[in-house]
Each structure stands twice: as structure tokens, then as C-alpha cells.
Design a protein that fits this description.
This protein is about 65% helix and about 0% strand. The model has no long low-confidence stretch (mean pLDDT about 95). The chain has one domain: Glycolipid transfer protein, GLTP (Orthogonal Bundle). It is built from 9 helices and no strands. It is globular. The structure holds ligand 1PW.
Length: about 220
């Protein structure tokens, strides 16, 4: 699909947004986290309609987070750290079984957080790949190592089918719109450690508060 100029996409900007999540005292800003996800969704949509079922859930979850941010308690949702503290203090999270808070911020962000791990693994494979490597294989390997364990069979099946429809590596690099393959590799080398840090800080925080299994 040809994209119009005003929505010309560049993966570098998206990854920059994730990097800007980090505050000086190593908190994770929700506005930037969500903005990073918005960019990823645009990227997925530009890969074709098979990816729209995948991006749809991300869009829903992004919207839930934006609504919290714009709501009357929005200031508590400035960072993942402040959100966790606020929702736990107020008892706004169903931690062990589904209950009154099916769309808590903690639960919703956990889904995006798990998906960020997939992205990290996929981009790392992309970074170290060569011309003969297939994006579909890299993508499904990354998925099987991360997000797949949280998905029921039917979603794993659908995701696998979407991956098969991914464009080949040369087209994929073009859609990323970063420049030559060498520039893509360099950009990924710069961006990945920071994405990884965002992931790890969130992971540690969730782990400390036993929030990694929110149903
Ligand atoms: C090519 C680059 C791709 C990187 C982006 C990764 C996006 C991940 C979105 C996967 C969504 C699959 C379909 C939705 C499944 C939901 O059930 C699931 N959501 C996620 C984000 O894993 C769990 O959410 P739920 O059902 O517990 O509310």
C-alpha cells in the first residue's frame, strides 16, 4: 500500500519515542510509551491488512491508557511507577483473578509490555540478520520466545498466518524508511539497548509487586 506523504513513516522516530520514555531517575513515562506504540501501530498497518487484527488490540489498549491519562486522576498516570503505586494503594487492580477492574492501567500496560519484548527480540534478529534470512521466520521465532506463551491457540494461529504475509527483508527495510540496510542496522544498534532498558525497568517493577500474572 502506498502511504500519503503526510503520514510518511520512519521507524527511527518510533524508536526515539520509546527512548524518550526514560526519565532521569529511571521512571518510564506513559505518554511517550503510548506514543511509541501509536507509531508501531502505524508501522504494522503499513505492512498490510493482515496485521490489522494485531494492531486493533494494541489500539484498544493504547486508548485505555490515554483515557486514564486524560481522566481526573491523570497525574497519577504520568509514569509506570506512579501508576503502579496509585492503583495498588487504591486497590484498583485485580491481581489474581478477574473482578471489578478488567481494564486497570496495570493490566493494560502489562499486555503492551509483553508485546514490547516481542518487538525487542524481533528487532534484535533483524539487526543481526543477513540477506538470506526471512522476516517471517525472525518474527515468529521472536513471538514464540515471548508473547506466544500468553496467547491462546487461536491467537497464536492467527499471528502465525499474519507473519507469513510479512514482506521480505528488502521491502521490510524500505518500509522502515530509515535508509540503507547499513543505516537500519546502525539505528537498531543504537535503539535496542534503550528499548531493552525500558522493558527491563518495567519488568523489574512488575516483578517486585507481583504483577506479572495479572489476568
Ligand atoms: C512487526 C512488528 C510487530 C510488533 C508489535 C507487536 C504487537 C503485539 C500485539 C499482538 C496482539 C495479538 C492479538 C491480541 C491478543 C490479545 O488477546 C492480547 N493482547 C496482546 C497485546 O498481547 C492479550 O490482551 P487481553 O485479551 O488479555 O486483553
Amino acid at each position: 500500500a502506498v502511504m500519503s506523504e503526510d503520514q510518511k513513516f520512519c521507524l527511527r522516530e518510533v524508536l526515539d519515542t520509546f527512548q524518550s520514555c526514560l526519565t532521569e531517575n529511571k521512571e518510564v513515562r506513559i505518554d511517550q510509551y503510548v506514543a511509541g506504540w501509536r507509531g508501531l501501530v502505524r508501522f504494522m498497518n503499513s505492512l498490510g491488512s493482515v496485521f490489522s487484527f494485531i494492531s486493533k488490540d494494541a489500539v484498544n489498549k493504547i486508548q485505555i491508557m490515554v483515557n486514564y491519562r486524560n481522566g481526573e486522576n491523570g497525574e497519577h498516570y504520568a509514569t509506570v511507577q506512579s501508576m503502579v503505586k496509585y492503583e495498588l494503594d487504591k486497590g484498583l487492580v485485580d491481581i489474581t483473578k478477574r473482578g471489578s477492574f478488567p481494564e486497570s492501567g496495570c493490566r493494560t500496560l502489562l499486555r503492551l509490555h509483553r508485546a514490547l519484548r516481542w518487538l525487542e527480540l524481533f528487532l534484535e534478529r533483524l539487526r543481526t540478520s543477513t540477506e538470506v534470512d526471512k522476516t517471517s521466520v525472525m518474527c515468529s521465532e521472536a513471538y514464540n520466545e515471548s508473547l506466544a506463551q500468553f496467547h491462546p491457540w487461536i491467537i497464536r494461529k492467527a499471528a502465525g498466518m499474519a507473519f507469513c504475509a510479512l514482506p521480505g527483508r528488502p521491502t521490510f527495510f524500505e518500509v522502515m524508511n530509515v535508509g540503507t540496510p547499513e543505516q537500519v542496522v546502525a539505528m537498531l544498534g543504537d535503539a535496542l539497548p534503550l528499548i531493552s532498558e525500558v522493558y527491563q525497568l518495567t519488568q523489574d517493577l512488575y516483578s517486585q509487586h507481583n504483577l506479572l500474572d495479572i489476568p
